[in-house]
Description:
Number of helices: 8
CATH class of the largest domain: Mainly Alpha
Largest sheet: none
Amino acid sequence: MNEQNALWEDIASRRGRHYPAHKFIAEKFPDYMEALLKLDDVIRAKERRFDEKMHELFHILSLAVEGSNPHNQPHLKQHLKKGLKLGLHPESIAEALMVCVNPSGSKVLTYGVTCMLEAIEELKEEENWQYPED
Length: 134
């Protein structure tokens, strides 16, 4: 495996998915991908105030605020799936999205919950995931 493919595999293992954009970046700009991986180590690998579950919630909120577009939706759903598997409760995700309505508009809530419901259905099909009990 060459260095660029190793970088692409590393980022894919951290993200839980192979993104074609990451492959292109790893091939064409390996120094940038190395910097991105180092940044990932600083943000995620060290002990911080927020655990991985909260990091996923921040990703979800950020991507939902970014808005609805075909290229963003799979990325948002990937973070929703990871957050749900880490134990984020669907109602907690919805509540966090509601907090974003005032500064960002109601489309954030509608888009975020729509993607979350799709992610839940995909998890049920892919992994027999169960909706958590309170």
